[in-house]
Amino acid sequence: MAAFRLPLTILQGETWRVPLVWKAGVPAVPVDLTGCSARMHVRTRVESPDVLLELTTGNGRIELGATGGEITLRLTAVETAAITWVRAVYDLEIVQADGSVRRLTEGSVKVRPEVTR
């Protein structure tokens, strides 16, 4: 199954929170994320060696629910205020307990600059 495309927008200077629910099957039911971890890199281009932003379950910027399939991406207002780029790309990978990796979503990231600072 291919990753679904999801464009993201970050409002600079604002607390950023994106709740997602991973569902699979027919009928679609939440995927059990027990024992999983998640990682997401934001780069200028896919082939760029430089990571602009890293979100992982390890650094607390991605939170996984257990059996409900919940995935929450999060950045603090201080973290979004520090962003200096405007456009980038990302992908979000789920690492399952057995070590297998699934790219869940991918797409563009746009940052809308903050006026009130």
Structure description:
The protein is mainly beta. Helix content is 4%, strand content 49%. The longest helix is centred in the C-terminal third of the chain and has 5 residues. The model has no long low-confidence stretch (mean pLDDT 95).
Topology, please?
Blueprint lengths: L3 E2 L2 E4 L4 E6 L1 E2 L4 E2 L6 E7 L9 E4 L5 E3 L5 E6 L1 H5 L5 E9 L5 E12 L5
Parallel strand pairs: 1-11, 2-11
Antiparallel strand pairs: 3-9, 4-5, 6-7, 6-10, 8-9, 10-11
Features:
1 helix, 117 residues, six-stranded mixed β-sheet, mainly beta, three-stranded antiparallel β-sheet, 11 strands
Into which percentage range does the β-strand content fall?
over 45%
Assign a percent range to the helix content.
under 10%
Summarize the main sheet.
6 strands, mixed
Q: What is the straight-line distance between the termini?
A: 43 Å
What is the number of beta strands?
11
Please give the radius of gyration in angstroms.
15 Å
- Encode the helix/strand succession as letters: EEEEEEEEEHEE
Mean pLDDT: 95
Q: Name the poorly predicted regions.
A: none
Give the helix/strand class: mainly beta
Q: What is the global morphology?
A: globular
Q: Figure out the total of helices.
A: 1
Give a quick precis of the structure.
This protein has 117 residues and is mainly beta. The chain is built from 1 helix and 11 strands; from the N terminus they run βββββββββαββ.
